[in-house]
Amino acid sequence: ATPIAILVGTGRGAQLGVLITGPEALESAERIDTIVLDKTGTVTEGRMTVVAVTRVGDAATADIQHLIGSLEHASEHPLARALAGLTAEHAPVADFAGLAGRGVTGTVDGHAVFAGRAAFAAAQAGALPEAARAAVDRIEADGATAVVAGWDGRVRAVLAVADTVRDDSAETIGALRRLGLDVILLTGDNAGAARAAAHAVGIDRVIAGVLPEGKVDEIARLRAEGHRVAMVGDGVNDAAALATADLGIAMGGGTDAAMHASDIALAGHGIAPVVTAIRLSRRTMRVIR
Ligand code: ADP
Ligand code: MG
Predict the structure, then answer these.
(1) Which of 23, 31, 158, 270 is 20 to 30 A from 283, comparing alpha carbons?
(2) Where on the tree of life does the source sit, at the highest rank (predicted)?
(3) Is 63 known to be catalytic?
(4) Is residue 1's pLDDT more than 70?
(5) Spatial CA neighbour of 43 closest among 200, 220, 263
(6) Domains of the chain
(7) Each residue's pLDDT tens digit, 219-233
(8) CB of 259 within 8 A of CB of 234?
(9) Regarding beta strands 103-108 and 93-99, do their DSSP bridges make them parallel or antiparallel, or are they unpaired?
(10) Is the beta carbon of 82 within 6 A of some atom in ligand 1?
(11) Residue 66, ligand 1, Cβ within 6 A
(12) What is the distance between the alpha carbons of residues 201 and 213, in angstroms, rounded to a whole number?
């Protein structure tokens, strides 16, 4: 039978924006010593804006905006929402495919369009043109995210996208530290953007540039070292890592995939309820013992 204290803790959690899926979640939460945070959409708002468009080759800017904006309109990644804004009128996308943490492809107006991280775009186009590589390096050194895009087997543009750190992130990360937890930022984004976000919120351990499988490996490695690990994430790319952690925590407003893989779902926006969850679990388990 489930101890009354856990039922009470679960009910209290729901009032405070911490939705707990089962009695084990509070027990796991009490024991964790390491908390791994996804970057995009978790520590940051995931509400991105396109800050620069660098043309590669001679495609017309209007075509770049129309084809890439239309393709990204079919994706639910936070980056995609910004890129969809490149155009007001979205053409339909046929054969849309998204490769989590890598990029997207689809047919727009008869063109085979792609957009994603540099390695993904290089695979689509056969190689990454020198001008594109230079643009990516410049954008990443500035702490933004570069999306390399094009169509019909050629890279045509590099887009710089910038995100904003959530209002409550720095304060929450400070509170997690005071609870005695090690905090790590884990992201599929580039090292420059990762370090800029980490610096803004006071995180000194950063693991960047990892694919979704790599996120799983990092969580598994920490657990193998004897840590008890909570992972907080929002994306399809986080789902497997959330399921691998001792405690998976899905962001409010995140994807269904992240929610289904998690033990706790946060209501509302921001990571502040993570602190509530840890405190609540400690109080609840103290009552039981
Ligand atoms: P995070 O781990 O910070 O949430 P992701 O793993 O979701 O980041 O994304 C990693 C990288 O994959 C992005 O920085 C981007 O380069 C690429 N990417 C993923 N989805 C898309 C998309 N819809 N359009 C363009 N690029 C994408
Ligand atoms: Mg994310």
Answers:
(1) 270
(2) Bacteria
(3) no
(4) no
(5) 200
(6) 4-45+165-288 (3.40.50.1000), 49-162 (3.40.1110.10)
(7) 999 999 999 999 999
(8) no
(9) antiparallel
(10) no
(11) no
(12) 26
Could you give the CA distance from residue 281 to residue 221 in angstroms, rounded to a whole number? 25
Q: What is the pLDDT of residue 2?
A: 77
Do 16 and 271 contact (CB within 8 A), yes or no? no
The beta strands (E) that lie in 33-92 are given as 34-38, 49-55
Which of 70, 53, 48 is CA-nearest to residue 151? 70
**What confidence score (pLDDT) does residue 245 get?**
97
Closest by CA to 149, choosing from 49, 216, 61, is: 61
Instruction: State the ipTM, two decimals.
Output: 0.92
Residue 246 in tokens: 């001792």
Q: Which of 33, 38, 167, 234 is catalytic?
A: 38
pTM of the model: 0.88
Token pair 């909570």 is at which residue? 230
How high does pLDDT run on average in the chain?
Answer: 94
